[in-house]
Design a protein that fits this description.
The chain has 1 helix and 3 strands; from the N terminus they run ββαβ. It has a domain of about 40 residues. It is an alpha+beta fold.
C-alpha cells in the first residue's frame, strides 16, 4: 500500500493555481555547441522531444523582470 503524506507534514504540497507559471527563459544547447533561447517550458519540451538525439543540455536562465510579481 502506498503511504500518503499527511497535510500537516512540511513536505505536503498544495497546488494554489492551475494557471501557467513560467518566469524563466531556457537555453537549449546542442551537441555541436549551437544554442537557442526560448521563453516557455512547453517549447523546451517540444524541442527536446523532436531533437533529443542532437541536444546536449538545457539551462534555466535567470528570472525575467516583466514588472509583475515579486523581486
Amino acid at each position: 500500500m502506498t503511504q500518503v503524506i499527511s497535510p500537516d507534514d512540511p513536505q505536503y504540497f498544495t497546488e494554489t493555481s492551475d494557471g501557467l507559471y513560467d518566469r524563466h527563459d531556457y537555453k537549449i544547447i546542442g551537441k555541436n555547441g549551437e544554442s537557442i533561447v526560448v521563453d516557455n517550458w512547453q517549447t523546451v519540451q517540444e524541442v527536446w522531444w523532436n531533437r533529443s538525439a542532437f541536444l546536449s543540455r538545457i539551462e534555466v536562465l535567470d528570472q525575467k523582470n516583466n514588472g509583475k510579481g515579486f523581486k
